[in-house]
Amino acid sequence: MSPTPVDAACEQLREALAGLRAAGGPGAEVDDLVALLVLAEETRRALDRFMVDATADLQRPGTFAERGYRSPAAALSDLLGWERFESRRRVVAAESVCPTIGLSGEELPARMPTTAMVFADGAASLRHVEVIARVLNSSPAQRLDPETWAGAEAQLAAQCAAFTPTQLHGWGMELVELLDQDGAEPEDSPPTQTNELRLSRFRTKPGGKITGRYDDAALFAAIAAVIDAGAAPRDADDERPVPQRQAEALADACAQVLSRGRLPETGGRRPQLVVTVRLEDLERRAAAASLEFGGALTAASLRQLACDAAVVPMVLSSTGIPLDVGRISRTVPDGLRRAVTVRDGGCAFPGCDRQPSWCEVHHVVEWQHGGPTELGNLVMLCSEHHRLIHHTHWEVRMVHGLPEFIPPSWIDRTRRPRRRRTPAAVPV
């Protein structure tokens, strides 16, 4: 086969990189090394521009959606091994400095045209573009009239060569707040209360972190009363600092509730569904069905929904008369789900950190195709990655008792399997 334009470009790029490495090898002059650093930064910015343009070219016709991805950032993350924030950075830049397509099919100019020019010239880095987009999406900037907003965008773009991204953000926020002379409209109603609690596990060691905020005084008082009741020093020799005593008091209270109290069951209990299947569809191995509260299901959606749910099968005749109503059967019993939880520790998809309570259990070999409901044929997936397995060309298989995932060929031509690092121990 003759080389493609991409093959030729790759070979030229390899030769150019080899030349750069040779020029900066042992014995290189200081001035040459400085020049190489500048050239490397210019090259990096040029590659960033190319990647943003390519992202926009793929995003405009809906290429990522056609391959089963609801989010372009998720597709880029799987394709290039990026963290999500890196993917979102490119997507934000593509939406800000690249032309878009209007509802009638006409090409519309970039949302930030001056920034697009300095980005194309290499005067602005990808981080500069991200910062300008963030500043112009802030509340003060959104209150500006279109002409003033465009002027602010031009001023921000002009400062890219003089400011680092952090400096540009500070200067830009001062600029838009100065331009927004009237400020926000006064609110007659009291501010909305915020009550939130965030739990996150440490990635590299056992344990995790809890952070919270309660504007509702009654909710905060209830939590504070529980902690205060158990945080008193045990005796005169108790030298634990106050934060430690409060942390352990909260954990003790939660342990008591788990052992004696009643909580809504999560994770181990799945929703009960009534799936209505016509007789002719059942004879075609359930090619279609509908939910109790309406809405048709495709075969792929039905298989995903039934992966880890209590199902009441109802068979209808061709005229809609119920022929048989099955009994509830749990596809994955609680004990088996706990075993999957211990093994996978949450979503098993590489790079995903969803906790077990947010996940579903998927049959690697589908149940309708003879796949058994046993540990060696089950894998824990969050809803996003469960959908990917059912609706795209991602595949999952079990190797030596552990799940591994095979990407589509458009993500990896070799389709090299990927596996998430299995945690040493996961609380059930």
Kindly summarize this structure in a few lines.
This is DUF222 domain-containing protein. Belongs to the Rv1128c/1148c/1588c/1702c/1945/3466 family. The protein contains 16 helices and 14 strands.
Structural class: alpha+beta
Radius of gyration: 28 Å
Helix-strand pattern: HHHHHEEHHHHHEEHHEHEEHEEEHEEHEE
Give start-end ranges of low-pLDDT stretches: 265-273, 291-295, 323-330, 423-428
Strand content: 15-25%
Q: Categorize the overall geometry.
A: globular
Mean pLDDT, as a whole number?
81
Question: Quick one: biggest sheet?
Answer: 6 strands, mixed
Which terms would index this structure?
428 residues, alpha+beta, 6-stranded mixed β-sheet, disordered C terminus, HNH, DUF222, DUF222 domain-containing protein, HNH_nuc
Note the topology.
Elements: H1 5-23, H2 30-59, H3 63-66, H4 72-80, H5 84-97, E1 100-101, E2 107-108, H6 113-121, H7 126-136, H8 139-142, H9 146-158, H10 165-179, E3 195-201, E4 208-214, H11 217-230, H12 242-260, E5 272-278, H13 279-283, E6 288-291, E7 296-298, H14 299-305, E8 310-316, E9 322-325, E10 329-330, H15 334-344, E11 359-363, E12 378-382, H16 383-391, E13 395-399, E14 402-406
Parallel strand pairs: 5-8
Antiparallel strand pairs: 1-2, 3-4, 5-6, 6-7, 8-9, 8-10, 11-12, 13-14
